[in-house]
Amino acid sequence: MNKTIVLGTLLCAASATAQPAPAPDPAPQPAPGGAAPTGDPKAEAKALYEKGLSEYNLGKFDLAIESFTKAYELSSAPGLLFNIAQSHRLNKNYEKASYFYTTYLRLKPDASNRSDVEQRISEMNKLLEEQKSMAGRPPTGTVTPDGGSASNPDQGAVTVGAVETPITSEPKDGGPVDGIAKGGTQIPPKLVSARMIFGVALLAAGDLDVPVQPAFGIVAGYPLPVGPITLELGAGIGYTPLPYEVMGVQNRGTMLGVRAVAAAVYPVTPQIQLRGELGIGFVSLTGLGEGNPLSQTYEAASYTLPSVRFGVSADYLITPNVTATVSPFGLAFSPGADGMYADSLREINVLFGVGYRQ
């Protein structure tokens, strides 16, 4: 009886020992494609850049292109376009390589590796022509059954070059997310540069004594990068009141200027740029009633005069698209017209304002 009880006890213990242990909780898995989005575009761009660099070094150029492209969409760092071009070149897609090299130089005209990139563009265009020529060339020559030497084989293999470091120093941290390059270079506007300005003007016309007057203006132009300088070609409109007194009664005329404007903009720091501006057009003097001091006969009159204006200013980039502007000096000159008492009209102004660039 005791033996039976002991045997039953041992069987129950063995049965309990044979049961599988509960499965542990599954370990957390990383999000597909790398780190999960953090909500910080700069951090995400940096992570994508690091991922693309690793893929590039492993020769996975298709994946590197994808990662660098996503990083550029977040940061707009021109150095990433250089990386994309390098990846396409080593992937033997010479047409896209040439395109991205060219776009890189267009967005970063003062790139330190500009001469090397221009040489790459020339190489890509040449290799593209060779590639197209070889694609349309019929096969020639034969080989022996065991794969021996071919008779009349094609000569001249196309080589691309060794893998190299793909990136310049600027975008190492994932690239700027505000449109200003890390290395101290601004990204110039591509579509428009416009400014709204206001301030004070001092007018002089013969013996006319005009106190300091308010002045307003709008200038807009199309940007054309030329090396480190950006040329802006456009137009400007300026308004200044023209007060005068007749027999103790205050009257006011209007001076409206319309000019074609050419400006040269030079970046000094990532946030500050200097601007020189030349405008050529005309000014219209209207609202000059009877007794006005500009007319030789003191009769009501209006005048349209040719005008030249020169000004200098400094812009501070609040954001990549919005600037604060100060113009400490501007000078406009117009020769007098027939019937005017004054032989010339001069305006000196000091202006402030805001700008928009895209």
Write the layout of secondary structure elements.
Elements: H1 2-17, H2 41-57, H3 61-75, H4 78-90, H5 94-107, H6 114-135, E1 193-205, E2 208-209, E3 213-226, E4 229-246, E5 249-267, E6 272-288, E7 301-317, E8 322-335, E9 344-357
Antiparallel strand pairs: 1-2, 1-3, 1-9, 3-4, 4-5, 5-6, 6-7, 7-8, 8-9
Helix pairs in contact: 2-3, 3-4, 4-5, 5-6
Describe this structure in words.
The protein has 6 helices and 9 strands; from the N terminus they run H-H-H-H-H-H-E-E-E-E-E-E-E-E-E. The model is unreliable at 1-36 and 150-184 (pLDDT under 50). Strands 1-3-4-5-6-7-8-9 form an 8-stranded antiparallel barrel. The longest helix has 22 residues, at 114-135. Helix 2 (41-57) runs antiparallel to helix 3 (61-75), helix 3 packs antiparallel against helix 4 and helix 5 packs antiparallel against helix 6. The protein is an alpha+beta fold and 358 residues long. The chain has helices at residues 2-17, 41-57, 61-75, 78-90, 94-107, 114-135, and strands at residues 193-205, 208-209, 213-226, 229-246, 249-267, 272-288, 301-317, 322-335, 344-357.
Order of strands side by side in the largest beta sheet? 1-3-4-5-6-7-8-9
Number of strands: 9
Radius of gyration: 36 Å
The span between the termini is: 98 Å
- Overall, the morphology is elongated
Percent helix: 25-40%
Quick structural summary:
The protein is of the alpha+beta class. It is 27% helix and 36% strand.
Core attributes:
6 helices; 36% strand; alpha+beta; single chain; 358 residues; eight-stranded antiparallel beta barrel
